[in-house]
Amino acid sequence: MNVKGGRKVISKNKKGYASVTLTWQHYLTGGIVGGSIFYMMMDIVYKQLLLSVISAVVGVVYGVVYYRQYLNKKHDRLVLFQFNDLLDSLFNSYAVGKNTLESFKGAEIDLLYQHPKTSLVYQEVCTIVSGLEHGYGVEELLLHFAQQVNPVEIHDFVDVFNSVYRRGGDLRSLMLQSKELITKKIAIELDILTIIHEQKQQVMILLAMPYVLLVMMEWFGLSQTPSVLSPTEWIVRTIAVGLFISGYVSAKRIVERIR
């Protein structure tokens, strides 16, 4: 960002916000959870320290990748919520006849009451206001904003806004329609996420049951895993682990398709 008059102005070299930058705490959380799960899975089935350690290393990598995906999805939902508040403020400003600069200035004040100064959308609105004050076009500023985020709704809005703005169309109606569509999408997505979360918990419980049963059987002395497995036992246990992994991958794909 370049700074003029104490405020931020658009810069082509600005770092985007399309993905979350992981901190060492994020790496530690994802790595510990993933590594622990993979280690316990292999230890329960094979009771081989080397294999369990190798699996733990794989689990650390997978845990970090999975945690990054989770944080990115959470980040995108938060951006969409903030953008919905921006549209609400812009609609109110355009409805009373304010021009584009005044509308975004009003949105800057409104967002400051609703979100912290570090929030993405507030920071981008500050950039837009500063850019308008220094002679940048609103179309260029909004395109720059869209490049920083992932939600397709924001990209679609910017495309339509720029088209309507160039033709001198009704921006007030555009704000109202965009806000209604995004509000409905957020409500529907929250309902879907609630349903998916319940189904996902059930799937995870079912997938964990074989391991729970193995542990319980060992606790009660009903099953003992020998220190040296025969070739037949290796094959059978490997097939069982493969079926477990296939079940997890299939369940994950189903959940993602529903989403």
Structure commentary:
The chain is mainly alpha-helical. The chain is about 80% helix and about 0% strand. The protein has 8 helices and 2 strands; from the N terminus they run ββαααααααα. It has helices at about 25-45, 50-95, 100-115, 120-135, 140-145, 150-165, 170-220, 230-259; strands at about 1-5, 5-10. Strands 1-2 form a two-stranded antiparallel ribbon. The chain is elongated.
Map the helices and strands.
Layout: E1 2-4, E2 7-9, H1 24-46, H2 49-95, H3 100-114, H4 120-133, H5 138-146, H6 152-167, H7 171-219, H8 231-258
Antiparallel strand pairs: 1-2
Helix pairs in contact: 1-2, 2-3, 2-7, 3-4, 4-5, 5-6, 6-7, 7-8
List the defining traits of the structure above.
mainly alpha; 259 residues; 8 helices; 2% strand
Q: Report helical residue fraction.
A: over 70%
Mean pLDDT: 82
Q: Give me the number of helical elements.
A: 8
Round the Cα radius of gyration to an integer and report it. 26 Å
SSE class: mainly alpha
- Uncertain residue ranges: 1-7, 9-16
* Helix-strand sequence: EEHHHHHHHH
Distance between the termini: 36 Å
What's the short version?
With 259 residues, this protein is mainly alpha-helical.
